[in-house]
Amino acid sequence: MLADWLELGAAASPRPIRSQQDLIAALGRAGSIDGVPFPEGIDDEPLDEMVEQEDEKLEPIAEAAFDLLAWREGYLGERYPFSIDSVLRARADAQASPYLFLTALTYFGPTHKPAPESGASLFERISRTALVEYLGGLERVHSYDFGFPRRGGSKAFREALNDLCQAMGEGLGCKVSRPKTARVKDAKLDLVAWVPFGDGRRNQISVFGQCAAGMDWRAKLDELQPVDFCNVWLTENPAMAPLLAFFVPRQVEEDRWFEICVGERRIFFDRLRIARYLGALDAELAQDCAAWTASAMSGDEDASAVAASGGATS
Questions:
Q1: For the packed helices 2-12 and 283-299, what is the interaxial angle rounded to 10 degrees?
Q2: Are 232 and 196 in contact (CB under 8 A)?
Q3: 243-247 and 205-211 as β-strands: parallel, antiparallel, unpaired?
């Protein structure tokens, strides 16, 4: 989270905290992470524990943050909107990058909803794009936005599920009557992607996706079970059971990665994996994400505080 704060500061301010020395000085002056402007609802206790240390322990804290930034740059390459060479610098197009949208969504949360579309809805679209690219790209992979509220197409759950089954050539439609599905929104299913063979026959790789943009993402890890979804809602189960993909806009810490990523038939996408597979993002989606990021970083008091908190450059 400290690395995220540094990235947002570098993108928002002409004079951010850019070096390890700047960060050590800022933490030393504050004496507590309480001096760092985290918005309400963001858990800052892990940082509190780090910062409330003896002065000599601040250096490894700062070094670890910059090591993480350097690792992100190495993994993402040109898709990382910053450069790390003893100092942190934002590229000229950083505020328009999908990566910064994911960072801002992590920091400000999905409840920040500038018009015309919420951060949560944009995150579902971003996640679908990444999943399609991971599975092989638009030439091979088909997809469907199922999360509620649905963008265009059928609005009701039953009709949307019938459309999905027809598009996939699997499932034979919703088996539950219209009255019983009247209040069902999406049954935790946000997106679907599949790789058809083109012969019209059943049996294909398919992935059911769930997106969790908020702080409570861990509690949602097991909410969507594709096999259970099919058993409850579909007239006929797919010939091959769908995989599960779970998406979060944050980077999951390495010491928690094993417990998070291990799960039967579950693919886990955190910020780094999503950003790596975004490729050439659809122009409209890229513009919508950039607008949301700009609104979050300029229209929120905490965004202004991030920009104002930077130390001297090195």
A1: 90
A2: no
A3: parallel
Question: Looking at the predicted structure, is the pLDDT value of residue 45 above 60?
Answer: no
Residues 6+ apart with CB under 8 A from 75: 272, 276
- pLDDT value of residue 258: 85
| Cα–Cα distance for residue pair 248/218, rounded to 1 Å | 10
> What number of other Cβ atoms are within 10 A of residue 70's Cβ?
17
For residues 83 and 77, the answer to whether their CB atoms sit within 8 Å is no
Nearest to 275 by CA among 264, 265, 294, 289: 289
Q: What is the pTM of this model?
A: 0.85
Cβ-contact 123, 44 below 8 angstroms:
no
pLDDT on residue 299: 61
Instruction: Please report which helix (H) or strand (E) contains residue 210, including its range.
Output: strand 205-211
**Do the strands 191-195 and 205-211 form a parallel or antiparallel pair, or are they unpaired?**
antiparallel
Q: How far apart are CA 159 and CA 314, in angstroms?
A: 59
Tens digits of residue pLDDT in 108-133: 888 776 656 889 999 999 999 999 99
pLDDT of residue 5: 85
**Measured distance CA(87)–CA(214) in Å, rounded:** 30
pLDDT tens figures, 252-293: 988 888 888 876 688 999 999 999 999 778 899 999 999 999
Distances (CA, A) of 270 to 97, 183, 212, 293: 16, 31, 10, 18
Helix and strand element counts for the chain (H, E): 13, 7
Backbone φ and ψ of 38, nearest 5°: -90, 135
- Confidence class of residue 14 from pLDDT cuts 50, 70 and 90? low
Q: What's the Cα-to-Cα distance from 191 to each of 100, 128, 160, 197, 265, rounded to whole Å?
A: 22, 6, 12, 20, 16
Task: Tell me, rounded to whole angstroms, the distance of Cα 79 from its chain centroid.
Answer: 15
H helix runs in 169-219, sequence order: 178-181
